[in-house]
Every structure is written in C-alpha cells, then in structure tokens.
C-alpha cells in the first residue's frame, strides 16, 4: 500500500469541494479568500490554485469585482449536463463492455462493490464512488478526449446527483438501476448497457424537475 502525499492546494480543494457539495457554502455567495486562508491554514497561493481548479471543475464561477462564487444549481444546466451524458457516456460504456479485459472488469466490480457498501447516500465518498463506477465502465474504449469530456460532465453533475439522492425513496431505486447496469456491463450486453444508462440519466432529469424550482 503506497502513501499518497497531498499538496496544500489539493487538501484545500477537497475541503472546499466537500463544503460546496454539502451546501455549507451557499450558491452565489462570494468566498472570502482571506477568511478561508486563515481557517484552512494555507497561504493565498495554494488557496488560489484550489479555487481555480474548482472553477475548472464547474463548482465555482468568478467575477472581476466579486471573486469566486459557488455556481447556482439550475434545471437548464442539469438538463444540459445529463443530456450530454446520455449521448456520450451511454455510447462509450456500451462500446467498452464488449472489449473489456479482466482488469477492466475487476475495476468496475470493485467500484460497484464499494458503492453498494456505503450507507450515507449523500456523502462525498458515496457520490465520488458513484462517479468512479460510471467512469470505470467507459475507460476500456481508451479515447482520451472522450474520457476527459465524460469526466468533466461527471464533475458538473455531482451536486445534482447528491440532490437527486436526497429523497428517502430514491436510494432503493437508484441502487436497483445501478445493479441492472452493472449486470449488463459485466455480461457484455452492449444494447442493454446503452438502453439502461440512457434511461438512468433520463430518470435523473425527470426527478430533478420536481426538486429544482422553475427558472
């Protein structure tokens, strides 16, 4: 087991990201960099690097006179992100399942097994493992550009995924959907994988329409 040493910038990134995901930092409210720097015990340079990375990942936006703000959750953005996932992720995962090696299948199985054991459905770790499970199913296609775009979409969708899982009845239905996707992927059933992933993302859109106020 190797020891992973994280830079101050990486540590600040993870702390602020979790606060955004848990709504401890509210959307559209400016981040006070001086206060954050003192609170986290880091200088302004690594903090700025962390904030810039969070902006690149879609968690923050920056304004010349207001600094960094948490991106608001909007239905238009949710529909845009999940429609792109329907188009790109479904095709990539369905193509990947038929060429997956034993190592690829092991990675997908490990991610799904961990996803299944985590009990706090809105925790950062569970949302991160959900992302890893989905991305693991697309990696065997080995298309660098596609993988970067799909990864970006997952970062953009992460707060929406957490919101989607909040209602108590969602946990069981979400798990059942993931179980069917996993079974089809491991069986190399490309048609089923594509259909199930498309419907999975469409259902998220339908559910979010009931949760996000009309714009």
UniProtKB/TrEMBL annotation:
SUPFAM superfamilies: GntR ligand-binding domain-like (SSF48008), Winged helix' DNA-binding domain (SSF46785). Residues 6-73 form the HTH gntR-type domain. The keyword Nucleotide-binding does not apply. InterPro entries: GntR_C, TF_FadR/GntR_C, Tscrpt_reg_HTH_GntR, WH-like_DNA-bd_sf, WH_DNA-bd_sf. SMART domains: FCD, HTH_GNTR. It holds the Pfam family GntR. One of its GO terms (molecular function) is DNA binding. Keywords: DNA-binding, Transcription, Transcription regulation. This is HTH gntR-type domain-containing protein. It comes from Shewanella mangrovi. The lineage of its organism: Bacteria, Pseudomonadati, Pseudomonadota, Gammaproteobacteria, Alteromonadales.
């Amino acid at each position: 087991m190797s020891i992973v040493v994280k830079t101050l910038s990486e540590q600040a990134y993870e702390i602020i990201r979790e606060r955004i995901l848990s709504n401890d930092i509210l959307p559209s409210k400016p981040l006070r960099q001086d206060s954050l720097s003192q609170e986290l015990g880091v200088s302004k340079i690594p903090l700025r690097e962390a904030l810039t990375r969070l902006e690149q990942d879609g968690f923050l936006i920056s304004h010349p006179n207001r600094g960094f703000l948490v991106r608001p959750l909007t239905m238009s953005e949710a529909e845009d992100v999940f429609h792109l996932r329907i188009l790109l992720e479904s095709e990539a995962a369905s193509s990947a399942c038929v060429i997956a090696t034993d190592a690829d299948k092991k990675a997908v199985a490990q991610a799904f097994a961990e996803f299944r054991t985590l009990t706090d459905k809105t925790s950062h770790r569970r949302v991160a493992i959900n992302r890893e499970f989905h991305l693991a199913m697309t990696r065997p296609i080995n298309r660098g550009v596609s993988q970067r775009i799909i990864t970006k979409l997952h970062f953009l969708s992460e707060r929406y995924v957490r919101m989607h899982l909040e209602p108590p009845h969602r946990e069981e239905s979400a798990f059942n959907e993931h179980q069917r996707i996993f079974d089809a992927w491991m069986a190399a059933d490309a048609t089923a994988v594509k259909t199930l992933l498309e419907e999975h993302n469409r259902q998220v859109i339908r559910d979010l329409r009931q949760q996000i106020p009309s714009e």
